Amino acid sequence: MSEFNIESESIDVERIMEQIRARINDKRGEDYTEEQIRELASVKLDRFLDPKNVRSGMVEFYQKQLKEKRAALKETPEAPPSFEFDPDVIYRSSRGFGGHVLYRIRKMLNPLLKFFFNPAPIVHALTVQQQINERQAEVINQMVRTQAEFIEIAALNYEVMNNLVVEMTRLSIEMKNHRMRVESIAGRLDFDEHRARSLEKVVQYRKERTTAAPTAGDSASEPRRRRRRRGRRRPSGAAPPQPSSDVSAGAGDGPDSADAASVVGTEPAPTVVKAGSPGAGSPSSPAPTDSSSEEPSRPQDRADATTPAARTSPGASAPPVDNTGQVSNDPASSAGDTDPSER
Amino acid sequence: MRLAVVVQRYGADLNGGAELHARYVSEHLAHHADVEVLTTCARDYITWENDFKPGLERVNGLPVRRFKVSRVRNPDDFGRRSEHVFRRTHSLADELGWLDSEGPKSPALINHIRDHASDYDHFIFFSYRYYHAYHGIRQVASRSVLVPTAERDPALGLAIFRPTFRAVRGIMYNSFEERALIQGVSSNDHVPGVVVGIGSKVPSQASSQRFRQRRNFSRRFAIYVGRIDENKGCAELFNHFQRYARTTTNLDLVLIGNPVMPVPSHPRIHHLGFVPDNEKFDAMAAADLLIMPSYFESLSMVTLEAWAMGVPVLVNGQCDVLRGQAIRANAGLYYTTYDEFSEALRLLETDQQLRYTFGAHGRDYFQRHYTWPVIERKYLDMLHQLEHDDRPGNPIEPLPGWLTRHRRSVPAAGDIVDQLPTGPVLPASLSC
Q1: Which residues of chain B neighbour A5 with C-beta distances below 8 Å?
Q2: What does A276-296 look like in DSSP terms, one character per residue?
Q3: Percentage of residues in chain B with pLDDT exceeding 70?
């Protein structure tokens, strides 16, 4: 992430603003403009996850609530039908032709009826009551519609909230994964840096060795030759190298010793013939005493020498092991096997 | 030299931008010339009702001649006409009707200008968009100097004003952006013009300690000074600051000015209301920075005052003038989004050295361009240049005939303004 680098003598508003924008882009990860972000935010939320897969008490709660509300809405008793009312309804009869005659008679006797009581207030009260009933019915219908809409909105809310919870969980897991990956990469980066430093120092060390001991006289083909020799030894089924002086002492007694001698004999390489080198005749020292001159030329092996086993016990009493698996007591060899800085 | 300053309203207690500008300029030019102010009897800029008595009076020692407004403004009618000429294809007659509706319509003032034109060497008109400037300049174009106080609003795109911009003898711009706008809309590059702006009376004894003691306020804060109005970008400022306040606890926001919108109740937003000038400057001296969230400004006096006090600013980058000023002065940052607001404010909050440097740049910018001696000199130079210029001014283009005036062929003013160049005028492109 770019940091601000502002020198007071050369402050430039536009340059600072460019740095601010770069910082914002770094933070955001991608170079979205504000408009793009708003557009993304306004995109319709699609149903992309199955709510059944979510294990959450909230889901059951919401589902239960929804079911209850829908059931309650269905169980609401129907309102009785409204009645039609007009001033003549109190005189009518439902008996067909007889009822029609009866209606006529009642109408005719209406003045007489009015002589006994006044039906007008009754008619008026019933008319008003009918209007009240109609209004109430409208209000109730509206409330029912509102309730149904509310239930639908609640269902949508549930869906949105459910998706949010699922997404949040998924993001949380992804974030943890990313964090672990970042930590892992950081660890590997540290290790690689460490390794690179070691290799750089070993290269320097080798230069010093070659200039200080020209009699070691390693030709360019020397490492290749030794590798070849080892290559012959491995298929022979030799026992795995043991950190024992016996093993090293027996190096010349094994079946490969003749081959080794022949190699030595045919190619009078100074490294092997050099009996005068320190420790060459010692029984505790391995036959190939040139690990120090070989190892630096193989950075991979050099790096392997700093494997956790070597690193976890710096300065341990166990003798270092060369690439052939043989234990080397040669101080030069051990010096070449490990990073000088680690020693 | 006899000067007439013509402005829509005038008074010692009027604080509108152009009116205050006119008063300051009049009072300072009075040290060098005989100045008379010609104005209306209006006090209220919404209705233009006659509030002052007509005739001659003195305001802060200056003669002020007032004329009655013949018709108060009908806001509904004005709104309808504005909608028509700003958004739809219309005619010149529609624009003239819009101008009458806007007011302050004072034929008596225009008649006085026509009848006494020879009594004055120059007429300095303030605010191009009002009745007095349009009709007054048409009477005495050859003696007119215009202080347009123009912003990027649709009125600038009205066709009736283009001859005005081309016919005046000189134009005193408030900012480079204003000049670019007016030259873009009217092609008046031949008219002498200078970017002047306005000075400010900044006390030398402003004390941050005094403010903190009086208000019992010990926290660091950013300040906003001005009308608390959605049109001034305050709603956006409140949103941004409340979001920002969740990320840091060091900085508060202090507001000074009359509210015309609700101020959010937030523990770190402090509204002090309207305060006297000395306390305002004390508060500015105590502030870490000034925030100016306005979208439209022809010249922000508050920003200049902050720089005069050595206070850096954070301005709304959507306002070309503010953004241009911040870049040219090298004395503040700007924002166009919340992310920029947040980062810029955090930078100003945390980097003391940057604040000091911006403050020093701002003070230097103010001293070089906006102290009163500098402003006065620019006005006097312009007036002397016009006096010694024997060339006749550009005759103002006559209005077309009745039929042409009523032909609906004038494009919407808003569309015209939308096509004008945008963005701040950067230092590299200046040729002032």
Answers
A1: none
A2: TSTTTT-TTS-S---HHHHGG
A3: 98
Residue A34, chain B, CB below 8 Å: the answer is yes
Residue carrying structure tokens 């008619």? A123
Same domain, A100 and A35: no
The model's pLDDT over B165-179, given as tens digits with 9 standing for 90+, comes to 999 999 999 988 899
Amino acid B90: pLDDT: 94
Verify that A88 and A165 share a domain, yes or no: yes
Predicted confidence at residue B202, as pLDDT, reads 83
Structure confidence at residue A154 (pLDDT): 80
Rounded to an integer, what distance in angstroms lies between the CA atom of residue A255 and that of residue A248? 14
**Average pLDDT of B327-352?**
92
Q: Do A16 and B326 touch (CB under 8 A)?
A: no
DSSP B395: P
- pLDDT, position B122: 93
B269 & B167 share domain? no
Structure tokens at A251: 């190096």
Interface of B with A (CB under 8 A): 326-327, 330-334, 336-337, 339-340, 343-344, 347, 351, 353-354, 356-358, 361, 426
Within 8 A by CB and 6+ apart from B386, the residues are B122, B145, B169, B170, B192
Answer yes or no: is pLDDT of B181 > 70: yes
**Higher pLDDT, residue B324 or A236:** B324
Residue B298 in 3-state DSSP?
coil
DSSP B304: H
Contact predicate B181/B156, CB 8 Å: yes
What stretches of chain A show up as alpha helix (H) in DSSP? 13-28, 34-42, 57-74, 96-108, 110-116, 120-212, 222-233, 245-249, 256-266, 270-273, 291-294, 299-305, 308-312, 331-337
Q: Amino acid letter at A279?
A: G
A-to-B residue pairs, Cβ atoms closer than 8 angstroms:
45
Contact A16 B333 (CB under 8 A): yes
Nearest-angstrom CA–CA distance, B395 and B383:
19
- The length of chain A, given as a count of residues: 343
Judge if B244 and B307 occupy the same domain: yes
In a domain, A212, yes or no: no
Output the pLDDT for position A234: 46
Look up residue A119 and give its two tokens. Answer: 């039906």
The reported pLDDT for the residue numbered A39 is 60
Sorted by sequence, the CB contacts under 8 Å of residue A34 that are 6+ apart come out as: B336, B337, B339
Q: Which of B291, B290, B195 is nearest to B239 (CA)?
A: B291
pLDDT in tens, A32-60: 566 665 665 555 444 444 445 555 566 66
Q: Which amino acid is at A203?
A: V
Domain ranges, residue A277: 219-232+242-250+257-310+319-343
Report pTM.
Answer: 0.57
Instruction: Measure in Å the smallest separation between the Cα of B319 and chain A Cα atoms.
Output: 16
Q: What is the pLDDT of residues A119-151, one digit of tens each?
A: 888 888 888 888 888 888 889 889 888 888 888
- What does each C-alpha distance from A125 to A13, A113, A120, A131, A273 come to in angstroms? 82, 18, 9, 10, 134
Chain B residues within an 8 Å CB radius of A12: 330
Tell whether A160 and A223 lie within a shared domain.
no
Note whether B142 and B53 are same-domain residues: yes
Residue B106 vs residues A68, B109, B142, B196, B306: alpha-carbon distances, Å:
73, 5, 21, 29, 38
The answer to whether B189 and B166 are in contact (CB under 8 A) is no
Task: Determine whether A342 is exposed, middle or buried from the number of CB atoms within 10 Å of its CB (0-12, 13-18, 19+).
Answer: middle
- For residue B281, report the phi and psi dihedrals to the nearest 5 degrees: -70, -35
Partners of residue B331 in chain A, C-beta under 8 Å: 13
Report the alpha-carbon distance of residue A263 to residue B293 in Å, rounded: 88
Residue of B nearest to A3 (CA): B347
Q: Which domain holds residue B145?
A: 2-199+372-423
